[in-house]
Amino acid sequence: MKVINIHQRVIHQPKAKIAALMDTLATSNDQMLAIDKWPRMKLKDGKTVGSKGGHGPIRYTVSDYKAGEYIQFEFSRPLGFHGHHAFQIQELGADKTELKHIIDMNTKGTGTLKWLFAVRWLHDALIEDAFDRVANHFSPVATTTDWNWWVIFLRKQMAKRSHK
Prior knowledge:
The protein is an alpha+beta fold. Helices cover 30% and strands 35% of the residues. It has one domain: START domain (Alpha-D-Glucose-1,6-Bisphosphate, Chain A, domain 4), CATH 3.30.530.
């Protein structure tokens, strides 16, 4: 199954400020992902091409990186995920930057089922939480995207499994 999944958010800040937050991705001081709600992204050799890592059950390798612009990862797990995901930032104006996350992959077999029934929903919530976190660095009023009932259900099931 072909999957194109795009999330984008315009942040009313200069690109350099968003780039500084993206530079902390997968570090001990990650200021981009909502690490209070989701598994931390770990990369064995940092944000260098060839570095292996992941978050939760998702595994990937850094396939392309340009500081302050984008980072791209090739999936290695779950089985049946063939493609990549990437974070990109683009200047839209002096104080206007677009933050984008893209998944471009093909799924096969159980990978398709995992995407349709679990990963897609959890991924969408994780990315919106990350974008909220980035936006909240610059706003006195916190933005919070609510999880839908399916995400809440899946997280409860995962929590039960981890306590066994």
